[in-house]
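Researcher: Sequence recovery benchmark, item below. Answer with residues only.
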């Protein structure tokens, strides 16, 4: 709770604000403008709420002394509802700041972009356990999951923790090469083996000898390339294109796909014998929408990664709400890019809705501001959004209001006040 100084010449408005803020648990002192500066010099306050803009000299003196943490200047006379909302926003900002700070403290001491899997949710704990288990073996691994879930990062982590960690990790995106070139890319070729083969070239398998080969989007391999890959997995040897020479390699294979490989097998687009060869071990990565509890950790991580040196930007309550509601079809990769964009546009200071991508910032208005093409009054739209948002939070918290307040980034008392103001339909009572 805050120690708040209210500066207001109207006794009635001053009294109303005093009573409301005290009911929310704040310590409140009220004065008129003539006594304000003396009190500011003599006592410490967390927040100063003024019903008028302070004189330039007063403002500079207050700032120079560094007495209040926040100064809120509102039009005269003070509106009690506006005062409560302004103080609540400050409280929410502090809760969000603390949430991100706690998340930062839970991050690994040394953040390694190529081998740091972020997440403490139940789904991600299973991923961590599986990565630890498969890293110590040489068996093939198939990583599945939607685009942007971090399949390449998991492959990098497995390699780094394996006995091959000091050997090469070679990464190939199978979908990035046309069918006519993927075999040459993987297995190499002799000079003149085909049009454009101007010189001999070792393939990616040879480059990964002794280490790990990661085939991303393995579903993009042609059936011919699949047959040749199967032979390498069975015998440990292959023939570069244009030669009868046999090349032996010691390579651990990690594959990844965002497609249903079993379905492709049934459709005849993927070999069933190869499917079972590459899927000796498997790891399935959850989409971000199924691990929303990891959002604070991920946001804290990306803020550290992208923020300017010496800066620790936080998020406004509106920005935090939008991120919490957005389904992130692009998963963790989309969140990473969104935070990077927001840090740049906010110049390393507080991130607000305007700094987020439009599809994320718009999520707050998709169900509230326009219904069937009809523009609603802003107050109605905001109230409807808040009701819907609070219902979602209470549902996620199993009806526990203390837990819901923590998820929402607000105090328990502020949540109760919101529920009271918006009506009993929010909490199902």
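Model:
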């Amino acid at each position: 709770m805050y120690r708040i100084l209210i500066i207001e010449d109207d006794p009635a408005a001053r009294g109303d604000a005093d009573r409301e803020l005290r009911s929310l648990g704040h310590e409140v002192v009220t004065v008129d403008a003539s006594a304000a500066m003396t009190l500011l010099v003599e006592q410490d306050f967390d927040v100063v709420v003024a019903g008028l803009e302070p004189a330039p000299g007063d403002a500079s003196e207050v700032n120079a002394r560094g007495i209040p943490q926040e100064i809120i200047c509102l039009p005269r006379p003070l509106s009690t509802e506006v005062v409560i909302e302004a103080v609540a926003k400050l409280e929410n900002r502090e809760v969000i700041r603390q949430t991100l700070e706690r998340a930062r403290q839970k991050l690994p001491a040394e953040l390694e972009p190529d081998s740091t899997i972020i997440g403490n949710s139940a789904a991600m704990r299973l991923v961590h356990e599986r990565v630890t288990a498969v890293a110590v073996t040489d068996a093939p691994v198939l990583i599945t999951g939607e685009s942007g879930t971090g399949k390449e990062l998991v492959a990098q982590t497995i390699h780094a923790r394996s006995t091959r960690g000091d050997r090469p990790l070679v990464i190939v995106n199978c979908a990035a090469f046309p069918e006519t070139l993927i075999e040459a890319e993987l297995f190499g070729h002799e000079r003149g083996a085909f049009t454009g083969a101007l010189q001999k070239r070792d393939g990616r398998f040879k480059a990964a000898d002794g280490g790990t080969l990661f085939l991303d989007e393995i579903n993009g391999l042609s059936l011919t390339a699949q047959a040749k890959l199967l032979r390498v997995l069975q015998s440990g040897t292959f023939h570069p294109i244009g030669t009868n020479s046999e090349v032996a390699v010691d390579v651990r294979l990690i594959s990844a796909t965002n497609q249903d490989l079993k379905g492709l097998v049934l459709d005849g687009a993927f070999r069933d014998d190869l499917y079972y060869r590459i899927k000796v071990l498997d790891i399935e990565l959850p989409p971000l929408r199924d691990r929303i509890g990891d959002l604070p950790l991920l946001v804290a991580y990306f803020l550290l990664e992208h923020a300017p040196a010496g800066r620790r930007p936080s998020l406004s309550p509106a920005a935090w709400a939008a991120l919490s509601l957005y389904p992130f079809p692009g998963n963790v990769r989309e969140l990473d890019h969104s935070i990077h964009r927001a840090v740049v546009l906010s110049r390393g200071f507080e991130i607000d809705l305007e700094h987020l991508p439009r599809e994320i910032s718009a999520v707050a208005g998709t169900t509230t501001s326009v219904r069937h093409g009809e523009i609603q009054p802003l107050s109605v739209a905001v109230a409807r959004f808040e009701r819907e948002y609070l219902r979602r939070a209470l549902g996620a918290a199993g009806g526990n209001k203390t837990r819901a307040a923590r998820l929402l980034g607000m105090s328990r008392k502020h949540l109760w006040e919101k529920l009271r103001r918006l009506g009993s339909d929010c909490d199902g009572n």
